[in-house]
Every structure is written in C-alpha cells, then in structure tokens.
Amino acid sequence: MTIRNDATRLTIRAEDERHPRSVVGRQGQVLLDADLDQQSRHLLHRVETATDDMLGAGGRLVVPASSNAFSVTPAPTPDACGLGTGHGFQGGWLVENATKGCLLRTQPHPRTDTTPTAPVLLTLKTLVRYVDPVEEKAFADPALGDAQAAGRALIDWQVFPFAPAGGWGTDFGCATATTHPDWVKLAKPSSGTLAVVPDTAPPTTDPCSLMPQGGYSRPENLLFRIEVHGGVPRPDHPTADGPRFGMDGLTLKLSRRNASVLAGVVKVDGTDITVEPPALDLLNWFSAGAYAEFVSKHDDVDPRDAAARERLFQVARATDVVVTLETAAAGMAGSIKDNPAGWFLRLWDAFPEGNGVATAKPSAEDPQHSELLDLGDGLRIRLGQGGDDVFRRGDYWTFSARADGSVDWPPGREEPPHGPQIRYAPLAALTGPSTAQDCRVPAATLTDRTLLYRGGDGQEVPAPVGGGFVTLPGRLRVAVMRGRTPVAGASLTWSMPAGGVPSQVGGSAVSGAGAVTTTTDAQGLCEVAWAIDAGRTDKEHQVQAALTSATGTPEGPPLMFTAGFRTAAATSYQPGDCALLQQATTVQQALDVLCAHEGGPAEPLALRLTSIRLTDPRGTAVELVRDDFILNGLDVAYNAFAAGITLNAALGKDNVPLESTPQPRDPIVEVELDLPYPGTDYDKVYWARASRNQGKGITAPFGFHRVRLAGEVTVPHEPEPGLLWKPSNMASTFLATAPLHRWGQRVVDAEAVKASGWVSDETVPVLCRLRVRSAHVWVRDPETGRPVYLNAEHLGVSAGATRRELLVREPDPQRAADLDLFFYLNLDQ
C-alpha cells in the first residue's frame, strides 16, 4: 500500500527548495524517524536522478542491451501474453520482474483481460508501494516478540492492455501511441489540489476571558492523511487502470495516524472478522464508530475492484482479535469468507458528523473550489482546480498537526496530491495475434564496442566495355571504438546482403557462399578495397560489415555500403520546356524519344504574356514583365494603376487578335486588395473594448479583409492584342486618396479611439492581387484554326530581381494556366 506508516511526518517543507545532500546528526540532539526516512530519500533522489539523466528516454522503459526484461511474447489475447524476467529502469526507478514464465494473468498483480484485442498497447504501470510488516511477516523479527517492525518501500508494477475508445488509427506503433490524446490523459498526473484551512479564533469583547487561539485543538501530535475514496467517474478519461474523478462528488477518507493501522484477515463469520496480529495499543485500534476498509495488496496498482464495490464499513464493536462490522458489510465479508488470505482490514477515522467519507461539492461563491470540509479538531480542507480537476482513487495528502496548535501546511497553499508516485511506459504495440513492436529502449554499457562508418559509401563509376570487376576509387573505411578509445584487433566480417550481387573485398570473393574477415589496426580503423561486377550494371551493388565476437557472433547491426555504375539509364533527367520530353525521367529515355522523333513536328505554339503594364493618372507606366519573367512581389506607388492595367499577349511572333468577348462586369481580370483589419474607427473601438478582460486586449490590426476593386475589361487590338482593365471612378478615387484614408487606418474620431486603448496606427504596404482567367483569353492558330489559350504557367523560377519572379515561357497550349501574381502598394512611393 502506498506509504502509510505512522511517521512523525512525511513531508518536510524547508525554505530552500534544493534537495539536501544528506541528514547530519548532532551530538546530544534528537534523531527523528523522519530524519532516517529523509536520509534514504536524499540518497534515492541522487541515485535515481543520475540514472534517469544518464539513460534518458523519458516515459519509456530502458533495459540493458540484449536483456529479456519485460519483453513481450504476443498471444491472441492480452492475458496470455508473456513477460520476460529481468530488470529495467523507468525514470530512474529500478523495476524488476522475478517471476519466471510470467504471463499477464500470472504476474504479481494479475490482469485477466482478454479484450481489447490487437491493435492494443501493453502498458507498464509502476508506483512506490509501502509493504507493511503485517503483509510481509519476514520484516518482523520473532526475537522482539510483539514489537512492531519497520516496513519497506517497493517499486511495484503491473502490465495491462490499453486501447483508446476511438481506436488508434492507421499509424499505430510505439512512436505514435504515446502522443494519442487518451494516452496523454492516462499518463498525466492528477491535477486536483487540496488546501488545509485551520479555523480562525472568533473575536471576543470579554476582557475577563482568555482569547481562544483557533486552529488545531487536539492535545496530540498527529500525522493526518486525506485520501481519495471515490467519486463520479469522468467519461472523457480512460479507465484501463481505474476511473478518474472530478471535484464535484469526490469522496474522501480521513486518518489521524496516516492510515497506519492494518490487520490481516484470518477468519470471516458473518460480519465478525478475526484478525492478526492482535491489538497492541487499544488507543490506536479499531473501535466502535470508527471505520474499517477491506484492502488487498493489489489495490494500489489496480484500484478497479476497490472502486467498483464498497469496502468501507463502520465498526460496530471490537476486541483485541475480532472486529465486528455493521450489517451492510455482510456482502463484502461473504465474498472473501472462503479465501481470506491476502485480505486486510485498515482503520480509518470518522468525520465529525460520524460518516466514513466526506463528499465535496463546488462552492456557490467560487465554483473553482469546493465548499470547506470539516475534519474536526479545528481543521478544515478545501479542494480546487474547478472543471479541469482530475483525481484518482488512492490520491492522498498528509500533514502534521502538533499539540501547540500548529499545522505543517503553508497558509493558503493549494497542493496537488502528495502521492502515490505513478509512472507509465509502453512495453509493446500488439499489431496482431502473433506480432508485436517492442517499445522498450535498449541501453548499451559503457564498455560496449561500437562499429562506426568512416567513408566509402555511395560511389559511382562508369561501366567499362566488356564487363569484369571494377575496383572503386575510394576504399571502404570503418572504425571500432569503445567510448573514445580505439579498439585494435577487432574482428570484422564483410558479407553479401540477402538478394545482393557478388563482389570482391580486398581481392577475395564475397558472395552468398563466402565472406571475408579483417581486423582493425592500432587506431581502431579498417579499410578495404571493394570491386563490383560491371556485368551487372542493372543492379545496386551492396556489401555489409559486421563487428563480430571471438566466437563469430555479430555484435550489433551491420554497416551497409552501396555503389553502382554510372549509365544513361541510371542518370536522372529533369524535363524543361521541350514538350516532347515531358514524360522522360532518365537520360536514356530522353535520348530514345529524341531518336524516335528525329525530324518530327515543330514545337507547338502558345499564347504568352508579353507585357503587364500599370499606368498611373500622369501616364507613368510600371512594367511587370522583363525577360520572360513576371516581376512578382514588387513595391509600387499607391496610384500606380489608377489609370488602368494593360496585359498584352502574343502567339509566337504574330500579333493575332484576341477572340475574347468579355462583358463589362465579367471577372476575367480581377484586382483585389488585402486591407488591414480592423480599419475604421468604429471597428477599432469595438475590438479594443470587446477583447479587454482583466488584461490588455486587441490594440492593433490582427488580420486582413479582401476587397475586389470595381472596374471594366475591354479587348483593344492596337497597338498589340491584349486586355485593358480600368478602375471605376470611385475605385480610381479610392486609390488616389489613399494618403488621406491610409487604406482605412486613418483615425477620424481620435478621442474615441484613444479612449478604447488603441495604440497602433502603423501603415504597412497593402498587398494587391492580380488574376487573369486564362480559359477566357484565346486566339486562333492561323495554320490549324485551333484555339490557343493564354498561358501564364508559374514554374517559380527566380531571376534575381525580386527573388519571387514567375516564369511564363511555357510553349504547350494544353498546359495553359491562370495568371496569379501579387505586388505591394506603398504610400511612400
């Protein structure tokens, strides 16, 4: 059971939050049990932190390389899966499986789940569990008679199957399973909090009476424990290892001695429970009105049974060896009557109103916290975290209360559960009844030898005429190291991979029937000459090097070297402007196509843009096409196209007239502006006020809204064929007056805007988008009479002017595409 010894205190809240190095005894001074416990914790913290930092792999089980510890043998149902013996490390904890022939249904804390079936993730859950001498009699020495002995803290564990309610998806595996939202919820620690609130002293006006002190009022030094008993399960959390609860309806148990009184069940007769060992201290024993709970050693790692049926009952009467429970306990007592071994009774105190549990409910004044729950003795508690709270059965808090009225709890502090400490790690991803992906992380030792690549991979040579073996110019080089120390004399085996092609290493044949062995020099290096067969230019040539032990056993995976012959069929070809070679991917294919079409038809014509001209009211023009490139992304003046935009096109070298017949409002040419938003004073004031809560709200533009400018399209044929887009009168006025309205960013009602908190009036260049729908722009080929459409194919080639130019030299009319370019309107130009 998670730490429940009756200690002086479990938590020591020192002002310095750093971890002490050790406990230091002082001559003639008191040495408390808490000091001894803290000394072991200091040492464990040092060892486990160092282990975790060195091994890494957070959230995973790390095992020694080649270890069988917790390796999973898949089976058709999860309960039949095997678990290998040995030890591993989880977050620095040493986790051991000492059970030979271990299955999920025979592990120390068995799981008999036959569902869910694959795909399913076998999960390792570990926690720190306290083993009481009542549970393990070997901890008590008979030489001391009835004296109570110390217990032990154990890293306990259980493996269980886990699958989210909605399934894993198609990419299920060790790398992806731990990012699934349901896994995150499973592994996330409890987030609910608790605060201890001592009563305050009431005011008095009687000068002849003593002022009550308030706070803890018992004349005893006690270690209180508040533990989660149950509640209302949260449906949005997985329940593979027990339900999670919210704050509303959460039930808590109370013990004033850290729930340390435990007795083993020997015999059950109705509601009379015979226990051992007998009472040693009647003041710290079961008594009428207190509460007793049936507990099992499995409850901490697997609380599902304890959460599913009530086990906490009030004590009717008690003797040294017999505890009689209320009538309601008959059902539970009867279920263990025939097999009481492994069952215990644990003592809990009653709350002031006599109940065994207290139920939390949200406070009407502050729904993020619960109403105060009375512990008696001048103490109350409050739960917190509101709607995001998550509690588990067994979550607990401890605090010490002293006879001087003090309570070891910082005033007003809300703390997450003090325990139990629980960790989760994926062991194996079962993808089928006989297939599993191992999720454990193997760790090499500091003395392991490592095979390292040093050069020679990926070579290519021309294929000679006549075949034969060709020695590659670069030698294959590997190194064997032990940490930073070279390993001399290490044995290396060079072999042919399965399905490979025979080759030669150092002049000796490497094939499916033979390998070559070499050794490293004094610097740990080995380099060999490699020759490949020129008679197999169609194949990728490979050879692998493996580090082997004295007995020839491979130590780790091999290194693979690859080489090939440089041929036209193996050389990539990237199609350019030639329509004839668009489907060719290798030089050989391109040559074959050219040979087959020697003297064939000429390259087809295409209608291409020759000019894109912006004209301002003064007649000044900005040309956006230069050397077959569209100058995409230019900065131009705010009124650069207030007089219109002209787009000229040509079919080859002929000025063939366009056959487009657009109506004035047809969107063949679209000019759109991305204006900052919010722009108007009203919108600024609205967003500034609407977004303000307790902190700073929206005080600057946060987006853009697109405006398509009104205009008409005509098709002039002189001086050359093309399109002319002219803005409407109001659109032209809008552009001309941009310095005044600043694209809607000018503040008119300064007083209202300033009062709203708006602080940003920065004006940035406005993005302008120009689009031409090519499907509506065409001419007829004078020779064939077929329509040829405008081609504005964007291949993203940069000419170095704006670094965002768009290439329009695409001759294939079947690949005609819309023009879609952008530029910026700048008020400073």
Compact description:
10% of the residues lie in helices and 33% in strands. The chain is built from ten helices and 54 strands.
Strand content: 25-35%
Count of spatially separate domains:
4
Largest sheet: 7 strands, mixed
What's the alpha carbon Rg, rounded to whole Å?
A: 41 Å
**How would you describe the shape?**
flat
Mean pLDDT level: 87
Number of helices: 10
Helix percentage: 10-25%
Output the structural class.
mainly beta
What this model shows, in words?
The protein is mainly beta. The chain folds into 4 domains: 33-189 and 423-443, no CATH class; 193-202 and 212-419, no CATH class; 450-566, Immunoglobulin-like, CATH 2.60.40.10; 607-826, no CATH class. Helices cover 10% and strands 33% of the residues. The strands form 14 sheets. Strands 40, 41, 45, 48, 49, 51 and 52 form a 7-stranded mixed β-sheet that branches. The chain has a 6-stranded antiparallel β-barrel with strand order 13-14-17-16-15-18. InterPro entries: DUF6519. Pfam families: DUF6519.
